[in-house]
Design a protein that fits this description.
The protein starts with a helix and ends with a strand. The protein has a domain of 56 residues. Helix 2 links the parallel strand 1 and strand 2. It is built from 3 helices and 3 strands. It has a 3-stranded parallel β-sheet, with helices on one face. 36% of the residues lie in helices and 14% in strands. The chain has 81 residues and is α/β, with parallel strands linked by helices.
Length: 81
């Protein structure tokens, strides 16, 4: 419901901060490193560009964390479909 309720086109404010990330490929440790270095939502806003899973050993953990943040902070965390 959360993903379906958001408009197709969104306008994001880069302030106070906006991190654009992509190609996580199931690398859970890399995803955690991004959050540790750049900040966790909602203090930092995120736009993930895709390629969430497929190559890493922890694809399930990766997509679950991304979806959990999306559910918890729908106005600060964006996943392109």
């Amino acid at each position: 419901e959360i993903l379906l309720s958001q408009p197709v086109l969104i306008e994001l404010n880069p302030k106070p901060s906006l991190v654009i990330a992509g190609d996580v490929h199931g690398q859970y440790s890399d995803l955690l490193r991004i959050f540790d270095r750049m900040g966790h939502p909602p203090q930092t806003n995120y736009l993930f560009m895709g390629d969430y899973v497929d190559r890493g050993k922890k694809s399930l953990e990766t997509i679950l964390l991304l979806l959990a943040y999306k559910i918890k902070y729908p106005e600060n965390f964006f996943l392109l479909r």
